[in-house]
Design brief:
It is built from two helices and 33 strands. By secondary structure, the chain is mostly beta strands.
Amino acid sequence: MRIRFVFCPLIVVMLLTGCFRTTEPKPDPGMTPAPSSQVFSSPDVTSMASVPSSTAAPVSPSPTESAWQTPASLKMNQDQRRLPVIDANHAAFHYISTTELDRSALEGALKRQLTSNHPGRTDFSYTLDWQSGKEFTLAFSDLLPRETVHFSVNHPLGTGSAKLNEDMPHLFDAAFQYRDESTPPEIVLTQFQPFGHQYLPVSMTDQQLVKQAGSGKPFALAYDEESLYFTNLSDGTVETVPLPEKKDYILPKTDDGYQLDRVHGYKKVLLPKLFYEDSIYVVMHHSLVYRINIGTGKSRLVYTSDLPIAGMSSSPDGERIGLMMQDYRLLSEADLLVINQAGKVTGRYPKAAYMSHSDGYISTYPLEWTDNNKVSVTTQFPEQSTHGYNEIDVAAKTTAAVPDPKLNLERVKQLAGQEKEFTPFLSPDQSKLAYVTRSNDGFFLEIWLTDLSGSTTQFAGLGMFLGWISPDTIAWVEYDAGERKYGW
């Protein structure tokens, strides 16, 4: 039997490769109270130079369990099993350093780096318990409802002006959200200017952004075992559409004999980015392509594949469907298969996309129709060590490699130099940037907004990014308590 590797997934639009995770000591359930308290006014968060990343819940580890060696570093002990979502309006973080720290420098760094996603937040209450030059506890209190706080001690100087390890700037960052136990997670619409949030009820946290062909209206789309759920992001109303009934169908097997539902990365349903006034295409079990009538709930089987389908998108007019096909070995590259609405194959384009990953699991390959004849497939160009798109004209039967234009933006390059992992999303008018970073230890996602000059940066919060729904507004979903995310 083939041994399957456990790894961190690499997103095809990611600018920097490699996953970074550390092993932290086991936390101690007890905590020393923090006696020294201060309240300060934070700077305007819109002008703050942010270096976002790791998240944590309130913990207090035992300092005797730590044994870090050179190079000098400051590390936050945290329980990786906990979520950054807390139901009490206070949180504490414990730190140990391998070099002597200067307290005044650290306090100054805190004042520069604290950021809230709560509009109008001008001050924080916190206590700094300075146990020694190599150990301290930072505790927050009086958090506001639904507030997400991000802070980082940005390279505080040690005694003798020795800086901490520049290669690991994210290991002492943290972000957490206070949400009362009675308040469930919701879809959040965050506006860049003026900065603010609107909340919409959500039936489940695993959502995907889809838009209606023609009108461009944004919806959040989710599914369970029986139905699809369309949440209208204009008013929060939800429409339920039944999925096709389970049929007697044997799933294809991989080259080593595994059925697809036993392979890492398997999804019962693959959803598109586009749907129509009366219908939507979905892929079931990576094998069956259905067209579902949204009004009646009736479904029609369009196509059955013997190879695993690992991505799907339909053209604006609904007459063509692009399918990304992996072979039985589930390698890092996939072909593009184009079918019409009757299920007839009209074109095949070998090796249309490449994604670097450990072979042997199902990976989703993003693709999107730019018009009724052209489909754009996100890919990596290994020979160039860059990312971009293969743009395929299904009418002319041609393929062109196109670099990702946003990778050349100065603001993107700047953020790429700061972040260990980073995925950018340009606004529809190309004037702003939403970007997502992943915490190094918790695998939780942080969402940020900035203009292309970098003069205004906003911390939106912790959750799953959905996308831009207007030139000034993004949609995302809060984390649920008890849920852990391992991907983008």
